Amino acid sequence: MHSTDPILTYLQVTAHTRPFLLSCYEKINHSRAEHHAYNNAERFIHGLSLGQDYWSTALHTPLSVKPLLFYYGMNHFIKSCLLTVDPGYPATAKVLAHGLSTRKRKKQHYRFLEDDVRIQPHGLFPHAAEHLFQFSSQKTKISMDELLRPLPGMEELFLLKNPIPITMEEEWPELLAYFAVLYNLSMLVRYEGEWWGEMEQMRDREDYVFIVHFLQSASGRIPKILASWLNDQFASLS
């Protein structure tokens, strides 16, 4: 994430983070606002710092591990955002899971764009969807094609593949779509090393250009969304 985002620089010290969190908790009329603001301030800062470290490293690392670093960096950023709206996070171990799942062993002739992720009832994904965006998908699973197609920077690539516009059944918050795609890519890096390595070296599958273009777009777009979300949260306290 870019260090030039003022909100991220401003919230790197407890002298700013504690009153910010206190105002967030008072806004939702939490009975222990001061207690949680004091206890969560350093956790909030630590999440931002870890997220930035992962992000900076991902920007300068080979494609072979880039999705993994982006995914875990995003995890830390989202957890910091959650602390502004859910003072007791994480209340149980259930919310610490990914909240998404996919086949660890892929089928023969696997194609990334046709793959899907399943939404779980518990974990970081559904928790963030509810608390950050008041969003609940009507689907139990969603394809990479559906998630990628509407994202900024991806529409043009899909139109080159298929010039006929496709109407999406459900509009997802942009950040959640990035989260789900990065989750699936991180699983490929971890469990499908042979497929990932061949895709990267041979470049004989159309998945390659969509994945590379997505990662290039996500590297700049995700930090802007997260900074914008925190700015909106900050502005709502005025």
Report on this model:
The structure is a single chain. The protein is 60% helix and 4% strand. With 238 residues, it is mainly alpha-helical. The protein has a 3-stranded antiparallel β-sheet with strand order 1-2-3.
Observed structural traits:
238 residues; 3 strands; mainly alpha; three-stranded antiparallel sheet
Please outline the major beta sheet. 3 strands, antiparallel
Show unreliable segments: none
Strand order of the largest sheet: 1-2-3
Cα-atom Rg, whole angstroms? 19 Å
Class from helix and strand fractions: mainly alpha
Give the averaged pLDDT, no decimals.
92
What percentage of residues falls in helices of 4 or more residues? 55-70%
What is the ordering of alpha helices and beta strands? HHHHEEHEHHHHH
* C-alpha end-to-end distance: 26 Å
The proportion of strand residues reads under 5%
Please work out how many helical segments DSSP would assign. 10
Shape: elongated
Total DSSP E strands: 3
In short:
By secondary structure, the protein is mainly alpha-helical. The chain has ten helices and three strands; from the N terminus they run H-H-H-H-E-E-H-E-H-H-H-H-H.
Write the layout of secondary structure elements.
Blueprint: H1 6-10, H2 14-27, H3 33-59, H4 66-83, E1 100-101, E2 116-119, H5 124-133, E3 141-143, H6 144-148, H7 155-161, H8 174-191, H9 193-202, H10 207-235
